[in-house]
Specification:
By secondary structure, the chain is an alpha+beta fold.
Length: 200
């Protein structure tokens, strides 16, 4: 059993900043890649130490839409980590930081919660099935936490009419932009998300 000391949240918390997304794969030497990875993890650790959590993510590319997720909420606030898929990284980081601040302040954000005062459209909170943990979606968090796998919640955005991806008449142009992380990975329709491990 792995034991971790969980620090109490310090008063006077400041809002975390988002570091620019890391680019997709690029041809560099292994040593350069290792140095970049170490620098990025050092930035994550420093940001978690200063603000309580960091926001990591990946910009959209030809392989998958963009996604972002928190790292450190579970450690510093004893709350679930958050993941949001399919929005531009800056927008996703803003949403994650707003909901993360509520978790840090003691709000009960749990599966089934609908958050309707963070952005123009409502957001739904869903659990993340364990089968997604090996998909490469949360790679920085997995490296940060090591063998520990904190719980994650998916922040699901609705279309302009307030419909979520599981509801009838969800805007067709947004289909596939968000994986259904609450379902086992193999139960999701084929998409860039289900192929992520092969491309990440």
């Amino acid at each position: 059993m792995v034991m971790m000391n969980l620090p109490k949240r310090r008063p006077g918390r400041r809002r975390p900043v988002q570091r620019p997304a890391r680019a997709g794969t690029h041809a560099t030497r292994d040593a350069d890649r290792d140095t970049d990875q170490l620098a990025y993890l050092n930035w994550i650790a420093a940001t978690v130490g200063e603000y309580g959590w960091a926001v990591s993510g990946r910009g959209g590319d030809g392989q998958a839409p963009p996604w972002a997720y928190s790292v450190g909420l579970w450690l510093t606030c004893q709350g679930p980590e958050l993941v949001l898929c399919g929005l531009p990284l800056e927008s996703a980081a803003t949403v994650i930081n707003a909901i993360g601040a509520r978790i840090a302040d003691g709000a009960d954000i749990a599966p089934g919660t609908v958050v309707d005062d963070v952005c123009e459209a409502p957001l739904a909170i869903r659990p993340v099935d364990a089968s997604w943990r090996s998909a490469g979606l949360l790679a920085t968090a997995d490296t940060f936490y090591g063998m520990v796998r904190p719980p994650y919640l998916q922040v699901v955005w609705s279309d302009a009419d307030g419909r979520f991806p599981w509801e009838p008449q969800f805007q067709a142009g947004f289909q596939g932009w968000q994986p259904l992380l609450w379902l086992p990975r193999d139960d999701n329709p084929p998409s860039p998300w289900t192929r992520l491990r092969q491309t990440a």
